[in-house]
Amino acid sequence: MPNIKSVIKDVIRSRQRRDRNNAAKSRMKTFVKKTSLAIRGGDAAEIATSLSETVSVIDRTAKRGIIHKNAASRRKSRLMKRAAAAVKA
Prior knowledge:
mainly alpha; 0% strand; elongated
């Protein structure tokens, strides 16, 4: 544990940020899993609603800088590709 007061505060702040970031990533992954289950289910209406919620959560996560914008774009692209294939089939 550091001895300098400002460094102690930095450690506390970085732990808080880590917890907040982990919560946001976990939420994003949960929504992705829900969408994947909806895609496997094959119900077009459920896929559409789930996909829009998931895209929104992914965008928010990227906007806050928790994941890179290209990573967010890649995740959305892969999800939408699978969703389109499921609806088409």
